[in-house]
User: Fold these one by one.
Assistant:
Number 1:
Amino acid sequence: MCARGVCALALLTGDIILHTDGGGKVRAALNPIYGPSKVARGLFGLLRKAPPGLTLHVAIVNGQPGLVNVLDGVPFAVVALDMVAGRIRRLTSLSILANYNMFLLG
């Protein structure tokens, strides 16, 4: 069993970077977040603020493991994980609900 956050830190490389993009419509970090402690703190902070009904689904994003965040049955955000030796080196989170039209085809 892991203490809160300790297992999460073990999944992150020492040079991890978190990039977020809310498309100008959803709050996101203005600058990349560097380092395992700051990234983990930021992720746990986001999870605490997650709206009821938000679910995470494992997916392949750009050929790498990732997550699709679904809110009330509608894709809300995509998180791409850049993995190295089984640990996360980079997380890129893109909000798609606010800019859903840019993802529509046709």
Number 2:
Amino acid sequence: MEGFGQPFRRQFVALHISSGMTVLALSLARIVWRLTHTPPLFSAGTKKWEERTAHVAHSILYFMMIAMPLTGWSIISAHPPKPGAGANVWGLLLRAGDRAGSPY
């Protein structure tokens, strides 16, 4: 990142932050889905140790899907970017909505 210009770095950081928040939201939705729906049964020939390993692996994956975005969120909250360092996504969307009916 050090070799890139400041405008690219700002856009990349803004994209990275918004992607992390999207991953967090989708992960939470996935966990809610998983808690409200029963998973498919294992095949008849699956051994008990394979079932336990699958459960442990899925638990680790679910934990990481939540822990990684929360870690990034805590870091950006502890050390926020300087004013004007990131893209103002909401401002861009609101301005685009204001111009939606305008020919300019």
Number 3:
Amino acid sequence: MGEEKLNSQAELGARLMIQEHVKKELSKEERRAQDKEFKNKLKGTKTIIFQSEFVERMIGEGITQMKLGFDQLHYFFNDPSIDHKKHKRKTSNIKLVQSTWHIFVHELHQINHCLKDHTYKSLNSKHSACKKVALEGFRRLMSMEEDIKKENQRVGNNTTNQFLRECITILHNLHHSLHEDTAQKDREDLVEDYCE
């Protein structure tokens, strides 16, 4: 069961990497043409403002998916039954880290996309804090993109360790921002410290 989850996470990450690679191969003119076509399709559509209940569920689902991706890493590197020296998996250790990076980036992008048309004042304090944390988390992960995508790095190097610490921080901050029992002052302090 655990190995199936691990393989599905790796496959998702690989698909996302292929999509990203295909996107980069387009020339500037082709990208501009695609962007223009997409914008033309959007003409006449209205801005969507989501209800509070939907926003809460969507943020919660994003947190869940990120936690599952992170759990797969934890399972893989801490399972005593896996001999990492003899491990002949098609997906290398670093590919698993890259897949987790893609999951986090995708989920944070989804949260940001859902909340982009909401002003901070139109959201309640929990969702406003989550929006700020998701934007900052996405920015931080994207700043690691080049280092994470290097094929020759080892798991346990500085970039990987920084990424894993950032994953924990993002999950912690999103969870405490969304949690009902978090005091407003604590929520504000958490966002201010993280988003400096």
Number 4:
Amino acid sequence: MDVAEWLRKLGLDEYEAAFRANDVDGEVLPRLTADDLISIGVNSVGHRRRLLDAIAALGVEMPTTAATAPRGQPDAERRQLTVMFCATWSARPPCRRGSILRICAKSSPPITVPSAES
């Protein structure tokens, strides 16, 4: 896209040199913000508003190209992952530091669960 021609069509060709000096091309143009326009030198609020409206209209008209298409695999499958953390209560004595849980579990006395009758 020719940004200079686009500015001329909007009647804002006075900013052509500023856009060229700041390397604003057809790829960068759709992502410009009001702050970007101020830093380029578009000090008039009316001109900024006209430019932003025209840029928004470009977003609707411009086809997506390979350069602006999202990266990654478009056919990739996304799955939700659910993680659950559980804390358990035990009457067994705690394992000593450095011991293997399996060994500690085997050496601990079995847990007895009181029945509902007692």
